[in-house]
Please model this.
Amino acid sequence: MMLPKPSLKRSSAAGFTLIEVLVVVIIVGILAAIAAPSWLAYATRQRMNAVESDLVEVYKQAQQQAIAQRREVVVQIDEAAVLPTAVVDGVPQVLGPNDLAPGAIALVVDASVANEITFDYQGTLRGQETNLPYVVNIEPSTGSQEQCVIVATILGNLITTNDGAQCGTPTL
Model:
């Protein structure tokens, strides 16, 4: 006579409990909360560096254009624009990365000087002797960091810095 085989039932207790899942979610949330501010600061710094680099390039190209075409070239900072914008001979050029949010970064020129500079046919600054150094501040909407581009001499020498004190009162 054959004995019936005992049935081998396996319990279906595979997987995680609700408490284990909640603990993991809470730990991930805490780590994200710690990392998010430094990530946002890093992203803002990278965007500001891109705007600074583009502004330096605009000034250099305007100076080279003035020399090559033997005429005056005017570069104006459009402080009212929602995106950082430089206007070269009436043609606006948006500075920085394409994904820059409106109002995230602003270009600010000291109110006591004109917001434009003119390169003459030799590539030197015309009529700017009393306004030097000419400082364009690059400021994020958070106001936490500051960078600037300084047109230091009548020859159009450019200095970039991310020292807020140097931007406020440049020493050359």
User: Anything to note?
Assistant: The helical segments are 18-69, 164-168.
